[in-house]
């Protein structure tokens, strides 16, 4: 970003977003100051661009450092409005709906991310082959979030009931609608898991409510405006419950973008107002309802035994055809929320980006020489991981062996040159970097693997004599063998045994031209440990 571009940024905005350790907690990124703590008349005293960053000296003496890439980003949002969605009609899924096998979804983070991404962008996805046992829908919800308990309980059965408190629990047709519009906040996700569907009829349908609302806005802007500003009383009553929420059928954000649709004819109470307002509302309501029933908007499919539909309940309207009671139709459903799904998806993307970054380090800097040994840095680390795996080590130790020397990567971790006689403390640096994604079962053996060499040289006869020339040199730079007290203190550490195991694989992993799997071989193991 140029100096001219910076000049247009309000100083309080820029300072409020300072990423330094004085301003933000390093664990969670939360701010450590109040906006009122900043002085009056705050101004930029000096600025410079350096190594892809903008460095700012403030008038109160504080220093900030901002990535230029971050400064140049366009405005974004929380992903909940139409701007972040793929609005669709039924024909858009002529090649198939978003779906995945349950086993693959559980085993592969990329598959899970694809499913959750489809729900976030297109509003729905179907998991196939989910075990057709009761309460399994709760397990599905637990893979990305938390169940929203309502007056229907933690889950509900969609089947014909002798005394139904909701028309969904009959065999009749159900027109496109959203659930629980009478609740505030409304559950933003719904899951429906098919346990049995042998009845004639009972097919499922979905309508993209955002698409329907966008068509209304295009065809009749005045009607769209009426439905965004008229609070509608949504009501539900039974013997033990009375709920009401007054909300518009179409909700927009501060910029006028469609954010939420609540549409349920069964639950609309009595709207009050003057005659002109009521007439305008009903004209707009009827026009919108007619749009939702257009055949080209209705995506029809059948849920079979083991299928689980996940969908956005404040965007998609779901429907059902009538069915004969000549066979069983039994779905179990539950409610959840989009914020948890979005959180899980963001973490999956963050982990995938971290693994991509590691892969780039192995392929890039990893191709460089390794402390004078006959292998590259990447070959050394890959050999260590392969040796741990061949020894039957648990996954966390395989990961620690694979990643033990990540602190040597200069560009990523800003280490110093160990072979120039400076202890770059790469074990601490690497462990700290890895702690963004892994727990102490991985990071502690990494942090202690240098200390483990010093320990073994002190307590195991003949160990030091087996070190390579380079390893002997780095031993001296790193402090030499431990004394008796240091060795005893090390042995008492919780991660000492694992660190010693990693150290032994470290010393063995220096064979030139050894057949070694690549980084991608270890990626699923690393991804599972990040979960």
Key features?
531 residues; alpha+beta; NE0471 N-terminal domain-like; Double-stranded beta-helix; Hypothetical protein af1432; 6-stranded mixed β-sheet; 4-stranded antiparallel β-sheet; 17 strands; globular
What does this structure look like?
There is one protein chain. With 531 residues, this protein is of the alpha+beta class. It has 3 domains: 3-71, NE0471 N-terminal domain-like (2-Layer Sandwich), CATH 3.30.2020.30; 82-344, Double-stranded beta-helix (4-Layer Sandwich); 364-530, Hypothetical protein af1432 (Orthogonal Bundle), CATH 1.10.3210. Helix content is 38%, strand content 17%. It has 19 helices and 17 strands. The chain has helices at residues 3-6, 11-16, 68-71, 102-107, 109-122, 136-142, 209-219, 221-229, 275-292, 338-363, 377-390, 395-403, 410-413, 426-434, 440-459, 469-477, 484-491, 496-508, 519-530; strands at residues 44-50, 53-58, 63-67, 99-101, 124-128, 156-158, 174-177, 189-197, 204-208, 232-238, 241-247, 250-252, 258-261, 298-301, 308-312, 316-320, 329-336. Strand 1 (44-50) and strand 2 (53-58) form a beta hairpin. The longest helix is centred in the middle third of the chain and has 26 residues, at 338-363. The chain is globular, with a radius of gyration of 30 Å.
